[in-house]
Amino acid sequence: MVSLRGKKERLGAAAALIVALASTFAHGRALPQPREAVFAVESELAPTSIDRLVEQPLVVDSASTYRASEKAFADGALRPADYWASEEGVGHFSEWSKSTKHDFIADWALGKANEWTIVMGNEGGDLDSMASALSWAYHLSHSTLHHPQPRKAVALLQTPLDALDLRPENKLALDNSKMSSGHRDLLTIDELPAHPRAVAKQIRGIVLVDHPLPLSVWADAEVVGIIDHHADRGVAPHANPRIFETVASCTTLVARQMLDELEAIPGPPDGPGEYHMPHELLELMLDAIAIDSDGLNPKKSTKTDADVSRRVLERSNWHNESLSQVMDRLDKELGEAKRDLSHLSVRDLLRRDWKGDVVETTDTATPAIHLGFASTPVSIDDQIERTERKTLKDWFRVERRWTAEIRADVSICLNKYKDHKGNKVREIVLTVRHDHRINRTQADDLFRVLSSALNESFDLEEHPKMKHHAGKKRRQMVWVHGRKDAGRKVVRPIVERAVKSWISP
């Protein structure tokens, strides 16, 4: 009789082969294996044990995970001979983006990383983060072109290459902006030439857009700028610019700052005048603002969003159309793409919009916890139908494989959808592991603490499928509630506070 382990090994090998072949055809290269997930923020630590549901993940040494160069990808595979010369993207914006990616990687090898500023959005990688990072990096590099020492800036997407197309709206926006279909003009986290911790120590600094504080792997980098529409967390008080303002889209704030500075550049003979602003970049900005504001819906947007959108539109190729026409069209097109997730597996749904980091506890004897949040617009019932056995147990099996890859201790999946009556429903799925930084006793206690914190904050009901699932014994739970505003911005602070104040038994 074939052992369960043997079956798993063969299935895993087959799956890996399929992924590798698909990646090769899609991108002309072999992508890094998913288990080399870039959000494993403590890759140097080996797991102490592993649950029987999954095989022990390969913990890749940081030096071998991040080693992209001009001639090779991060996984060591050689780039095609025409990788940098091939013109997949056809616009000026694509050419600039690919050129800065190349120059940054080349300068790292030459020991000149200290000349570079990295502009990064959050690790969720939504359209707002991507557009904000690309826009501000473009501005930093072009606004100083005539300075004695022009500033070198590159946009970093804190998502791996093979996850970029898990957001169909991003793919559509990039296609519309004439960017490369293979994303060779974008610097993703797995294309860094060294581990983020090593990069952080060498570069000039980082600019945060669409998030208020850096991930722990960037702790050694100087934060030289922040532009964000979330709550101010007090990081880098002397950063310049340092902008926090409540608007629908962070791109609104980035675009306003760009245009203000651009229009302030003196023209000849006193100065060089305005630099070229490609229409592809302007239209990418409008894409991001439209999807985050529901087409400038007054219930979701501000006057600032509308005013800045109008300024951007006047410079774009759509300047002959009205603002309402453009924003309505973009919201409809991008919204339809964003909702088209029927082809995504459970694993892809989880990593499509994942945000996580290591949270330090206040008790010095209590270990830090790697905490992560997934956000999906798909019900747990629908997700269960996408598993092999169509059971809740199988859903948690997929979840555990994913969190094993990224070395997360606690994962929370937040689902928001409409039921058959059109009512908005929210779900919270909590899982606590015992095989990374904490043991079984600690995991049991942390599960209890987090469950209590969530129950105190929301009117939670156990999902009907929990009746036939021994979830509490496995530290797994699915709740349903009706609080409309309880997205990640509300739930995450509650859970983080509970983790920080937790005292290990």
Automatic annotation (TrEMBL):
Residues 118-289 form the DDH domain. It holds the Pfam family DHH. GO terms for molecular function: exopolyphosphatase activity. GO terms for cellular component: cytoplasm. SUPFAM superfamilies: DHH phosphoesterases. Residues 320-347 form a coiled coil. Keywords: Coiled coil, Hydrolase, Manganese, Metal-binding. Its cofactor is Mn(2+). Residues 332-498 form the DHHA2 domain. This is Related to PPX1 - Exopolyphosphatase.
